[in-house]
Hints:
Residues 191-240, 291-340 are annotated as: Disordered. With 340 residues, this protein is α+β, with helices and mostly antiparallel strands. It has helices at 6-36, 47-56, 64-98, 103-130, 138-172, 255-259, 269-339, and strands spanning 193-197, 206-209, 219-223, 226-234, 241-243, 249-250. A hairpin with a 2-residue loop joins strand 3 (219-223) and strand 4 (226-234).
Amino acid sequence: MALSIFVPIGYVATLVVSMLVFSRIYRRRSALNMAKSYQPWFPEGHEARDIYQTLVAADPPAPEAVLKAALLNRAMTDVRRITRMRDDKQALGTLLEKGSIGDETMARFALAEKELEAEILDVVSEANTFREGWGQLIFPTASEMVAHLKHKEVYYEIQRQRAAEVKKLEDEGKPVPKATVELPPLVTPSGTKIEIQGGPAAAGGPAVAGEPMPPGGGPVPNGPNGPGISLPMTGSGADARVTLPNGLQIHPAQLAAIMQGPLPPNLAPQQAAMLMQARAQLQALQEQAMAQAQAQGHEQDEETKAVSGAREETLSEAKKETNAAPASKTATVEDGGDDA
Length: 340
């Protein structure tokens, strides 16, 4: 009995459908397993991006200068990650050829690359919202700033290494050689202080200032934009920390989020309480600085009024003397004419 032509066609169709169903189920299960066991390539998260998004969503809105600084800090973090992933890609390629790593690691790396590409596009689009064309310049600027921070770290590491070597020689009782080359200070020396301005131009935003801070972190009488308060800062770049009046240390870019706008909702209750306490203390210091500035302004106004009053009296006396002199001269001439 001859077989129908539809039998092989049905067999092939059944085989193809079975393979498609199996492939779909296998891919779905593989994706679920990868999602369950997925570990981000950068487990520390993206703090700079979270800070920028918090400032953008702040109510009242943060000043434009603060937003630009936060976006630039975000771009600097992306530049560091680009450099790290470029180095990791070469090492992973070598390990994959040797069979030391599996496909899951390469899949994680590929996913991290896509996330970083999306992050770069987001930063560029955000930069163009501030000024058209800034998106093409923000990453070169961030690269220069990252290189400058690396230079500063190397520069300060020289001083720390020298201090350690000097201490080691002193402990061993050996003579300490004198430095033949003195290291010149950098443009931004260590121990820089963060000043929170109280004037309307700053609107509570942080600004770097090199003025000396009064004892205890009190108010600065005359800041660049009016009265403000100065806080000590240690470290640089991502390791920079500002010490608040209650002893809490935070990143300088988080100052604006503390001074205005709601706090991030994912904070621990204890940390949120400390941040609220720091905000109240900073606001009290700002009010004190404003009161001192107003008192000084009132004193200056009184001094100005006194000086202007004395000047008016002097001018009036001079006018009287000037008017009296021609009158006496005229009288003398007339008397002389009568005698003649």
